[in-house]
Amino acid sequence: MLNDVNTITVRQTQFKPEKIKAHYTESTLMSHFLTALSMSFPQGERFFVETVRNVRNQIHDEQLQKDISGFIGQEAHHARAHEQFNQLVQSNDYHLKNFEKAYEQEMIRLRTLSQRRQLAATVALEHFTAMMAGYMLEYPNIMFKGLSENMKNLWLWHAVEEIEHKHVAFDVYQQVFANLAQRRRSMRTITVGFISSTIVMTSHLVWQDRKNTLYSPKQVLKNTQTLLGLTQMMWRLLPDYLAFYKASFHPSEIDQQDLLIKAKALLVR
Ligand SMILES: [Fe+2]
Ligand SMILES: [Fe+2]
Description:
InterPro entries: UCP07580
Order of helices and strands: HHHHHHHHHHHH
Shape: globular
Radius of gyration: 18 Å
Protein name: Metal-dependent hydrolase
Number of helices: 12
Number of domains: 1
Largest sheet: none
Structural class: mainly alpha
Bound molecules: fe (ii) ion
Distance between the termini: 18 Å
Pfam families: Metal_hydrol (PF10118)
Number of strands: 0
Strand content: under 5%
């Protein structure tokens, strides 16, 4: 059982690219938040893969080489699935096209940095994705309420695989660079960038969909609960977030194995 849990499995997603409504969870705000995250995935995850590939030839540990292959396979599939999702959920009056362009520019800038800084950025962002994935699996009633089976196949699948490969970029960074000061510095920069861009993108989607999100009393109530839920998420994740700054930190010290076992059982095969 332990081996199965620790394996990085590259799965085909059962998510079917079909028309997606802007609101696919019970709360419109939660849909906008998840969509904002999804918008950043395709470019972000391709960047993660590149940063690990850049230094892969310096890894001589056989198991880590295998894990890198699993990580690359999983992230490549995620990028493709979220690209499809992003195309299907957007319309003329519901989109983040300007942000996608801004992201592109940011990725070009990131690629001019040293390989160490690029990989440190990936390590920091992978910590964020693993923390949030764990939260999604632990509190599906906050994050996934009202999600259709097809949407679950996307979000649940992605969350499971993020937890499975959460140690890979970190281990590569430790074996190649092992620079603690850079790891901490990059986490501080990434924290500001990631949180502010997610808030700004979510707010843009909320504004574009203000008729359903802000002017409907029923939704205002649900969205207030969502806002409280997201604030609670930040507080609950704070200890795991702060743990990253410890010199001895390793992603596997955050135990998400039980969650992973339960979530895998729910994945449609
Ligand atoms: Fe991913
Ligand atoms: Fe990842």
